Amino acid sequence: MRSSKPLGVAAMAAAAALTLTACGGGDSGGEGGGESTAGGSGESVRIGIKYDQPGLGYRDGDEYTGFDVDVAEYVAGELGYSEDQIEWVESPSANRENMLANDQVDMIFATYSITDARKETVDFAGPYFVAGQDLLVREDDSSIQGPEDLEGKNLCSVTGSTSAQKVKDDHPGANLVEQPGYADCLTALESGQVDAVTTDDIILAGLASTDANQGKFKVVGNTFSEERYGVGLPKGSDRCQAVNDAITKMIEEGAWEEAVTENTEGADYEYNRELNPPTPEPCA
Amino acid sequence: MSEYLNDFASLFDQYDVLGAFWVNIRLTFFAAIGSMLLGSLVALMRISPIASLRLAGTGYVNLFRNTPLTIILVFLVLGVWSQLGINLSEDFARNFFLYAVVGLSLYHAAFVCEAIRSGVNTVPVGQAEAARAIGLSFLPAARLIVFPQALRGAITPLGNTLIALTKNTTVAAAASVTEISALMKTMIEFRPDVIIAVFLTVALGFVLLVVPVGLLTTWASRKLAVKR
Amino acid sequence: MASSTARNVLFDVQGPRARRTTLVLNLVGVLLVAALAWVVLGRLADQGQLTAEKWAPLVTARTWENFLLPGLWQTLRAALLAVVLSIAFGLVFGLGRLSQPAIVRLVSTVVVEFFRAVPVLVMMIFFYLGLGRADLVEPANVPFWAVVLGLMFYNGSVIAELIRSGVHQLPRGQREAGLAIGLTPARSLRLIELPQALTAMLPSLVSQFVVILKDTALGYIITYPELLASGRRLGSGDGNILQTLFVVALVFVLINYLLTLLADRLSRFLSYRTAGRTKPAEGPVAAAAAQD
């Protein structure tokens, strides 16, 4: 997958040129194209995010917060859309591919892991973050340092999630309770009925950094999977390169670092510095 | 077409469809017993001489009949298990199975109670009068004369409650029980190619479970009807 | 409550001694309940679930404006549309089951029996994932339609049965009178029997609304932002999911209780006015209706 730097840059440039020419077409609605200002031309862009994941994508009335939201706003800005030109759309995990395939959204920033299976139906820009499955434990608990300590422990995850499945497959010795949401898991973790909650590290960090949970939990920081969060785009989209450029710029400007820190504050969390910040993959 | 069928058949290798259905059947079985016992008790309370018991019975029915089942289950797990720390079983998985049974029983007991009450309504006043006339007090009169007849009159609504219970076991996923609706969601998510077949399998599974219950109760209600 | 049945004759009015015993037992009962409540509340307090910071957010305007009221609106919206569609579905297939041609009766029977047997949640999941792939409805509306359709097929089938049994429960003279004045069976059904059956069904329909309203809560599983889902979202942001769900449950119980009362009132009011039976949740089908 990973190509050497110079080649990558060349590819970027080529794709950027393509993007610019494609701009003239201006077919379907909401297509801003271009990597600089004025591309929006009064149109809006529909961005899919999660509405129920504090720290990543969360809706509180007209306010949208979280790391995914921050990245989305930055990228949209680079594509020429002001904040009020963004139309947020809720994109629950199960419907992300459909929403892109059926032109219900233009981009998705919703803890969307890049996988080969998904690449068959959608395009990805990014990754803009490399997360990994991790464990959240109580602040004063040092008995769990990683997945190998899960034997005989009570573990909580969300019903039907990939994290839950992975634990079932790889750590059958752990007692897994599946709950409708991570907030339920945190309640059980706080009361001591479960010893750890598992899903992607940044999701855990986001949950633990909400006002009510600050200082109560810590992310173990020993990831045991690699989830590269990408920007979901409709198949054949001409935006991939522009999005990648925006992500690169965000990282270079330090806005990326700021967004991570801000959205995980109080969670005792360090993102994986070996893998982050990531270099966007060249567009296909 | 045959390729589609092959794809479909591979589902059964990949996922334990029958095993998941078996969970629903077991949930139905235990919750049916639980709700029947509890529901009879509440019905007895509702027709008892003691005002406070009647009040408690009415309150129970109004509370549980009007709360969505999924909220009841979430409260059991989130409130009773996670906050009060009550484990119903040493075995981790069985603990949640039992919680699901308790939740389903609590919810359907309200309907069992109403079914029995409607059955009691079918018992002519003369029966109760006769019971009183031969000197039976409330409990023996209820137990020996009224309830046996009321249950026969209540067979159809009870059967319907059983059907509803069977279908409502699909909500048990809210209490961390892996049953068929959860599996169906997983199957559709990972095997969108056979989405219709998955749905039809699950749907037909329930038709197979539910239709016999319906037929049986119709038959039983005719067979056991008190001729008047 | 004041039904003139076996209950009243099953026991005598209590005498002074029985009343005293009852009083003592009541006190004991109240004490037991109070003790249990004390233990439970104590446990919850230990867990920090009774603190002001967990409960206070629930009475702020933001909570209601941004989460609970929009959620309630989504719940009511889906429920109302589901009611309307269910009635339409019920009319079509209920009349189908009463109509003359055998093939129409057969098809209607199969449809009704099938959808009565399939759990609502299973149907919702199917429509949620199916509609999303089929690209049939507007963008973000997939969960909404999945909820509405799931509710419609199930409750529509129940209503079809209500209509059928409502017509069957009319005194036979109604139909005979219709035929006697020269109406065809179909016209007698439409002009004489159905209007009476529908009026008689009204309380059961209201009870059915309770069922529909409760079942919208399953929508959270397929990400429909109804009351329960909004409550969950709020609770996960504020770290007080238990407290939020408590309030959500309260709202559900309150609304449904009021609807149940309405159904009771309606049935009492209507019992003067029709030849049909108007008690809700009685008779085989109505009783089945009210429970999932």
UniProtKB/TrEMBL annotation, chain A:
Pfam families: SBP_bac_3. Keywords: Signal, Transport. GO terms for biological process: amino acid transport. SUPFAM superfamilies: Periplasmic binding protein-like II. GO terms for cellular component: extracellular region; outer membrane-bounded periplasmic space. The keyword Transport applies. InterPro entries: Bact_solute-bind_prot3, Solute-binding_3/MltF_N. Residues 44-267 form the Solute-binding protein family 3/N-terminal domain. Residues 260-284 are annotated as: Disordered. Residues 1-22 form the signal peptide. Belongs to the bacterial solute-binding protein 3 family. PANTHER family: ABC TRANSPORTER GLUTAMINE-BINDING PROTEIN GLNH, AMINO ACID ABC TRANSPORTER PERMEASE. This is ABC transporter substrate-binding protein. It comes from Kocuria flava.
Automatic annotation (TrEMBL), chain B:
One of its GO terms (molecular function) is transmembrane transporter activity. The chain crosses the membrane at residues 20-45, 66-84, 96-116, 194-220. Keywords: Amino-acid transport, Cell membrane, Membrane, Transmembrane, Transmembrane helix, Transport. One of its GO terms (biological process) is amino acid transport. PROSITE patterns: ABC_TM1. Pfam families: BPD_transp_1. One of its GO terms (cellular component) is ATP-binding cassette (ABC) transporter complex. It is found in: Cell membrane. Belongs to the binding-protein-dependent transport system permease family. HisMQ subfamily. NCBIfam families: HEQRo_perm_3TM. This is ABC transporter permease. It comes from Kocuria flava.
From TrEMBL, chain C:
One of its GO terms (molecular function) is transmembrane transporter activity. The chain crosses the membrane at residues 21-41, 78-98, 110-130, 142-163, 197-221, 241-263. Pfam families: BPD_transp_1. Its main location: membrane. CDD domains: TM_PBP2. Residues 72-263 form the ABC transmembrane type-1 domain. Keywords: Cell membrane, Membrane, Transmembrane, Transmembrane helix, Transport. GO terms for biological process: amino acid transport. This is Amino acid ABC transporter permease. It comes from Kocuria flava.
